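Before the break, one more example. Copy the sequence into your notebook; we will annotate it together after we see the structure.
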Amino acid sequence: MSSAGPPYSSIVGNSSTGNKRGHNHIIDNNECRGSIRRSPKSQLIGNVGLHGCLTLYETFRRSVSLHPNRPCLGERLFDSNGNAGSFVFKSYSQCDAIIHHIASGILHENILGLNDQNLQVLGIYMKNCSSWILSEYACYSINAATVPLYDTLGEETVSYVINHTQMSACLCSSLELPRLCQVANECKSLKVIIINSLVITKDELKLCNDCNLKIVTIDELIRIGTAYPSTSILPNDDSLATFCYTSGTTGNPKGALITHKNIVSVAAAALNSCFDIHYEDYYLSFLPLPHIFERMVISALLASGSAIGFYQGNPLKLIEDCIALRPSIFCAVPRVLNKIHDKILAGGTINSIKGRMFKYALNKKLENLNKTGQLNDKLWDTIIFDKIKSSLGLDRVRRLVSGGAPLSIETMNFLRVLFGSKTTVHEGYGLTESTGGISLTSPEDLSSAGHVGGPLPVVEVCLADVPDMEYYSTDSIHGDLRCDGRGEILVRGPGIFKGYYKNDKATKEAITNDGWLRTGDIGLWRPDGQLAIIDRKKNLLKLSQGEYVAVEKIENILGRSSFVNQIFVHGVSTEDFIVCVVIPDNDMKTKWLSLNKDHHNFDKVVLNDLLSLSKVHGLKGFEMVRNLFIDDDIGEWGPHNGFTTPTQKIKRKSLQDKYQEQLTNMYKDIRKKNSTYLLSKI
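Here is what the structure looks like once it is written out:
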């Protein structure tokens, strides 16, 4: 196999004294930490600017001056029958003018009042679109901040965020307007709705009048701003750019405060060191813009003069939008990439000449990758893989990035052989609190997998001991692999957030006395300096025999089963084993049922598959699920039914409440089987 490229990280001393030996030491409440690691390009760590720009508005204005006539933001227009046509783009100069008009309209109408922290904030509550970005950059141009809300959020969370920020105005589409009106009486600060449409219908006007809300279209705001132009009120690098409300799985979400310096410094680190983007690139925006991952990508693209097209808003038509745009940069979460992987593989299992040919070609390319690091095969690429890429609209992709959750080695290598050497496939790691940027795999690494690369030049990283989980920064072995320390990942640098809004307690828990952000993730250093995520400090269950179980780790492993769409692993301190609830993959279930007469065995087949995966991935006996319940009726857990956050993190308490009866019965069944077995031995 080929090398993973140059070293991913270098030791720069311990996390207190800068000792070049990098020895572990005791600091900060007797916590033991390992040595600090940086990118080999660590001279960039102090570079918080991008192309000489310190704020997001400056980076955009630079692109306007360099590429005024290049396409900037685009959407598909619909005909009278509702069919989507080609993408139509506004140029950088056109977008710049609209941004100025929106900002002028906001100022003339005095739409954004000051809250009790002397901040001006605009809520944005709708799916990705041009108006989303134009309005955000309008806020940047007048030193106001945005408060993005996932379009899937329910009334309770929307109400909390509006009241928490004392938001006076919110931009939304017709779809979100009823939800805003439903909470308006509980949100006394909310005065104005800016609706992203050409006209206001009678029903929309009545909705707003009934709850004493003023409503204006964004087009009307642009007309007002055109008639009454204002001068910009520019932010500085320490100015607040946006609130990012973290997806709380329990309790209210926390508002992470992200500055211009945070975003620009992380974008600069990615662009200057390992991830080139240029003005000829095209990008399809479909990941939720309230998530820091998508915002970072958009910021980097706009700073580079690239073109951004927005999907229709329907995930089922994502491939259709890809075909219409043919992006050159493609960013996704593992959930999307796994679906692409699974659908292509499902087509390759068809017992036909094409199916057998695909399977042979895939295995051949995977074998070459594992043996030599070779990604190209002119014959099979021409006959099979180039055609698959074209059918997905991904034939022009030169950079593919996965983020937001771990990507399996199988999917990573599949994507590599599918796209070939002209496309680099990356996996990144970051948190909202680190402005999305901690580490990224190198473009020179075409073959290694199972890690998230080395530190970006904007951060320093060290590992802290977690004695309760038996992870130590002095560890040299992880399973059967060598490592250079294990522990909780701590990170610091100019990309680290200012803190949680009006929540000093949570801020102090997140950031140590000496300025390190606690990620809550357990990582290890591989011998080549790559960082691998191996566990999660939170969501630990202590079983009755005293063993700790990291349920997220187990869910990540079992979620790779082809039978599983979603999974919830559960344990209690009074039992010595764990159980799970599964939402099945409908395609796999349908296929299995069509091939097997005894449908009652399906549960047993799924459980056996989960046990096989557990053994392959080296889970211990107490980490293996002993029983399961398959829910065929609910369809899917999501924000719409309150069982996941907008970023698809499962809400454990909500799921436990829903399935309490089934969970209780699963424990009873296993205890009964154990009792029967013991009695038979007497």
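The domain at 540-681 is CATH 3.30.300.30 (GMP Synthetase; Chain A, domain 3). Residues 16-28, 677-682 have pLDDT under 50 and may be disordered. Try to locate both features in your own notes.
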